[in-house]
Amino acid sequence: MAIRWAENSDLPWINEQYEKIGFVPSSLEREEIAIVTHNGRNAGVGRLVLLNEKEAEMGGIYILEQFRGLSLAHELVGCLVDKSRSLGLESVYCIPFRELEHFYEKFGFARVDPSISSVNQKVLEKYNWCIRQYEKPVILQKLA
């Protein structure tokens, strides 16, 4: 297992994966994208979308089916959390499916109620989009 940071040449593969699962495409313009590999093969991807100098949204966490069960998502999310800290971000949001709430809690994410918390407007718009887009329920979390 290894993790590397995406380059422009990786974008076709990244966006092919995201297209398969209905996620928004990526670009390197305002994103830090990590690719996790297993035995030299691309096995998954995740990203930090930089909203401004102080805030980001972590998402797009996807492990290809044949590589699931190898703890690669754990390594990938840990890497993205470390990257967010090294960038000095003050707020990092995540919009996972509700069934993954406890997984993200292991990294310091806590559920946020957008009706009583101040949430970045772009994140709030995406959260509402996800509620409409996906059949599975989603939640809003923020790195504590």
Describe, in plain words, how this protein is organized in 3D:
- GO terms for molecular function: acyltransferase activity, transferring groups other than amino-acyl groups.
- This is N-acetyltransferase.
- Pfam families: Acetyltransf_1.
- It comes from Paenibacillus azoreducens.
- It is a single chain.
- The chain has 144 residues and is an alpha+beta fold.
- The protein has a single domain (2-143), classed as Aminopeptidase.
- Helix content is 31%, strand content 28%.
- It has a 7-stranded mixed β-sheet with strand order 1-2-3-4-5-7-6, sandwiched between helices.
- Strand 2 and strand 3 form a beta hairpin.
- It is globular and about 45 Å long.
In round numbers, the mean pLDDT is 95
Shape: globular
Q: State the CATH class.
A: Alpha Beta
Largest sheet: 7 strands, mixed
Strand arrangement, major sheet: 1-2-3-4-5-7-6
- Going by CATH, the homologous superfamily would be Gcn5-related N-acetyltransferase (GNAT)
What portion of residues belong to β-strands? 25-35%
- Report the helical percentage: 25-40%
Helix-strand pattern: EHEEEHEHEHE
Structural class based on helices, strands and sheet pairing = alpha+beta
- Count of the separate structural domains: 1
- First-to-last CA distance: 28 Å
Radius of gyration: 14 Å
What is the count of helical runs?
A: 4
CATH topology: Aminopeptidase
> What is the number of beta strands?
7
* Stretches with pLDDT under 50, minimum 5 residues: none
CATH A-level architecture: 3-Layer(aba) Sandwich
